[in-house]
Amino acid sequence: MSGKLSLEARIVAVSLLAVAVGTSLPYALTELGTEPKLAWSGGLLLSAIAVILLLRTITGPLNRALGTLESGLLNFRDREFSISLNIRRADELGRIAQLYNEVGEILRRERAHIYQRELLLDTVIQSSPQALLLVDQSEHIAYANTSARHLLNRGRPLQGLRLDEVLSRCPAELADAIEHGKDGLFSFNIDDTPQTQHVTNSQFVLNSNRHRLILIREMTRELTRAEVQVWKKVIRLISHELNNSLAPISSMAHSGKMLLRQQDTADQANSADGNAARNAAALEKVFDIIGERCQHLTEFTQGYARFAKLPPPSCETVQWRQLVDRLSPLQPFALQGDLPARPGYFDPVQMEQALLNLFKNAVEAGSDQTTLAIRADARGQQITVEDNGCGMNEKVLQQALLPFYSTKPQGVGLGLALCREIVDAHGGSIQLHNRSEGGLRITLQLPWPPAEL
User: Which of 18, 172, 216, 373 is least surrounded by Cβ atoms within 10 Å, i.e. has the fewest?
Assistant: First the structure.
């Protein structure tokens, strides 16, 4: 019953009981013949002892409960929410302990939820293709994701390094954009490969300190794809218009040639005039030239149309020996090294077309020894074609993969562009480098299917 009384009611009850003891004892001692003064003194002493003993029954558990509550609040201050209070009382302290445990449970859930969200956010940021740098007001890098480490520090950690120390190892254009807080597109070369990056700088205050957030987005592939799509639209438009004109011209030239032959036969039957025969022969030659040029333009536009309408690759497992055996009769080359034991994964028809274009370019560049090397590891498939031709100068290397760009007098500029389009469609990359001993090295990097990574 006492467990259900409030703390105030218990103190009042103990006080009334002590008063009752303090007043009843002197009367009892007086009745027993004790002097009144001594009786009242003894009664007050006994009542004081009774009050102390009775209050101890209340203050003892109260002090222990308050100590437990204090320890719990200290844990809250230290951000430790996993400890609950084991106070089972029906008074105010019991209700406070219950509220404490409920608050602790809410805080535990909130912290777990925040931790999961932080883990998810960190996973997203670390797997993002955009490079992210967080720089504090002392110009030290406070945070960097995986892409930033690979772009700026060859995969090594960046946290704690000074920003100027990292920028000293970056391309000058990128370093200048980051250092001066510039936003926009910036082009530069990394390992002789043209790159285009979009840089964004923003500032904000975190924990009363100024921070700078730097985002670097790789735009090379997106800009290349957009450029190729524009070229494809232009090609389709030109091909459509040329075909609309070439078809009737070719038909009319053929009809005129047939009519000329008929007229020539009639003239020869009716007249022996040699001039008419010579004129007919000359006119027939004109029609032949018109027909040949129409045929040439038709084949020319069909070549561009094939580039513009390249179908998506139909990838499959391909044995490397099968690929080499199919290429050997078509173009001369030497196989360098052993073939990987692991089969390749790509569209065999498109890959054969790409390699044939590379072999043909090598021959046209004056190469008399073209080699093919194939490697495969956990990161992907690498196909390398090397020649000992004339190579390319810096300007040609930067534009060699663009459609319509060619240094050959009769070239149409589609060979390397088609190779790049095929490799990009496979999700890979193509790189061109001049060899130190002369000639060109072209590397095709193809990924494995996602299930095999």
Answer: 172
